[in-house]
Amino acid sequence: MAAVGQGELRGVVAMDGPSGTGKSTVARGLARALGAGYLDTGAMYRVVTLAVLRAGVDPADSAAVLRVAEGVDLGIGTDPGGSAVLLGGEPVDAEIRGPEVTAAVSAVSAVAGVRDLLVSRQRRIIGESRATLGGIVVEGRDIGTVVAPEAPLKVYLTASADARAARRTAQDSAEGRVSTVDATKADVQRRDTFDSTRAVSPLRPAVDAVEVDTTDLGIDAVLAQLLEIVRERGLCGAER
Q1: Residue 77 to residues 3, 121, 126, 172, 222, Cα–Cα distance (Å)
Q2: In 3D, which of 139, 158, 137, 141 has the Cα closest to residue 217?
Q3: What general EC class does the enzyme of this chain belong to (predicted)?
Q4: Which of 23, 84, 88, 227 makes a 20 to 30 Å CA pair with 214?
Q5: What pLDDT sits at residue 107?
Q6: Does 184 show up as a binding residue in the annotation?
């Protein structure tokens, strides 16, 4: 797909949705096409979760989790072409996608103090990217509702549980992790319930979000649809 142009995006595209909807791939692809920055906020929560597990802290112990989070040395880039996620200067891209972190991240991300810390940092990164590149595509579960509610384009991706489980299982297999579709589907549904019912920043679409069901759509089709919406809303241009 041809790029719209380097640095063409003005403002923030907030992309939310549960796992397995193609959110990361779509967000990266959209950022590349627009010459924009890219931020995976979920990776930030996973880094904190990894730090919690390495510290031997129970993810259900909110006070202890917050103490770990306050001392985490977390590094994350905004290059959609690829940038390492760091914990204490160590690349942990693969480890944060493992089953132990996946099983614990919902509990860690539900801690209000952890969310306060990371949302503040996310907003700072967004501001920096807008100043240098003009725009940024940010993905997560509360971007349109909490992190960047002023974003001129909010997108909420959905897909059937079966489709999401199949995608997650294929991704795990490609990255050397052993899983089954049934186990992955159960995990997807567990996280959906946890994330959508938590008291702080629950997973839900913003009232003005564009909802896109990716169950039967390939990545190129989703990107084409979103690029058209970006153009229609006048978010492409030289002025910033």
Answers
A1: 21, 12, 11, 23, 24
A2: 158
A3: transferase
A4: 84
A5: 94
A6: no
At 205-220, the pLDDT tens digits run: 999 999 999 999 999 9
> Given a cut of 60, is residue 100 above it in pLDDT?
yes
Nearest CA among 19, 158, 190, 47 for reference residue 108: 47
CA distance 15 to 143: 7
49 is in an annotated binding site: no
Q: How many residues does the chain have?
A: 240
Query: Which DSSP helix (H) or strand (E) runs through 136?
Result: strand 135-140
Q: What distance in Å separates the CA atoms of residue 198 and residue 109, rounded to the nearest whole number?
A: 10
Q: Report the distance separating Cα 108 and Cα 113, nearest Å.
A: 10
CA pair distance 16, 231, nearest whole angstrom: 20
Q: Please give the CATH number for the structural domain made up of 11-231.
A: 3.40.50.300
Annotated binding-site residue? 160: no
State pLDDT tens for residues 42-76. 999 999 999 999 999 999 999 999 999 999 999 99
179 assigned ligand-binding residue: no
Number of other CB atoms surrounding residue 105 within 10 Å: 24
Please write the tens of the pLDDT for every residue from 160-171: 988 888 887 887
Question: Does residue 20 have a known ligand-binding role?
Answer: yes
56 is known to lie in a ligand binding site:
no
Q: What is the pLDDT of residues 6-47, one digit of tens each?
A: 478 999 999 999 888 899 999 999 999 999 999 999 999 999
